Amino acid sequence: MNYIFNKSLVKTNVKVNDWIQAVKIAGDLLIQNDLVEARFVDAMIDIVKEKGPYIVISKNLAIPHARPEDGAKKVGISVVTLEKPVKFGHKQNDPVKVVIALTSIDEKSHIELISHLARVLSNKQNFERLKTADTEEEVVKILGKEVQN
Amino acid sequence: MKILTICGLGQGTSLLLKMNVQEALQSLGIDADVDNTDVSSAAVENADLILAGEYHIDSLKHLDAPVIAITDFMDVEEIKNKLQKFFKGE
Questions:
Q1: CB distance B34 to B3 below 8 Å
Q2: Is A76 part of the contact surface with chain B (CB cutoff 8 Å)?
Q3: Is residue A70 part of a domain?
Q4: Is residue B88 part of a domain?
Q5: At residue A134, what are phi and psi to the nearest 5 degrees?
Q6: A65 is catalytic
Q7: B61 phi and psi, to 5 degrees?
Q8: CATH of the domain at B75
Q9: Residue A149 covered by a domain
């Protein structure tokens, strides 16, 4: 395992006014845990502004991320669940309830983490639990390494 | 057979899609290499089939390879159904 995930990287039932605020809060968690530099968070937002809301890859789920050279320091994720879902502008998958910000230091170091995420999140029950999780501990339990399928 | 999954940067969400495409292929019993990359590199990769989110379909249209649009990257059933349709159509 080349990444850590614990409740300091999670915030549940957060109130936000728009998608930018949601991405910023997820980004702040990455900064506070020393996974990225501050400019990485701006890059995550700029990428959506430039390339569109394609990061809303699944119903109610956004995965903001930026390039390793945008100030990534370590591999990892932060998770923010929103009290009220917000729109990112995606035609099919809006509104977003769960934001998982992703950082990687190169093209390969996050493969293990991504494959774990794909396994957990492709299970609809897991995602339902994630959307309705009330505490940070619950989110860690759902997305933590001990949860497989 | 070479399949490409595409996203804006070619590192994050296309990798997530690749994982679920691999799972879908496995359950369909189809043997293929799956790789992920970004929109601009897709042209030089010479893929037989491309899977991407709706937002990138327009920028992939000029390529020779057929392109399948995936709405929900986490929905292995959607990916499976669309792949199955594609392979039956050939």
A1: yes
A2: no
A3: yes
A4: no
A5: -95, -25
A6: yes
A7: -60, -30
A8: 3.40.50.2300
A9: no
CB contact under 8 A, B55 and A52: yes
Interhelix angle A136-143/A111-121, rounded to 10 degrees, is 100
**Rounded (5°) CA angle A147-B74-A16:** 85
Q: A58 is written with which tokens?
A: 């699944």
CB–CB of B33/B3 below 8 Å?
Answer: yes
In angstroms, rounded to a whole number, what is the distance separating the alpha carbons of residues B1 and B50?
11
pLDDT digits (tens, 9 = 90+) for A102-129: 999 988 888 889 989 999 999 999 999 9
**Number of domains, chain B:** 1
**Confidence class for position A2, pLDDT limits 50, 70, 90:** confident
Q: What is the mean pLDDT of residues A11-19?
A: 98
Residue A1: inside a domain: no
Q: Which residue out of A65, A90, A110, A116 is catalytically annotated?
A: A65
Instruction: Give the pLDDT confidence score for residue A102 in this predicted structure.
Output: 95
Amino acid letter, A144: G
Count the domains in chain A: 1
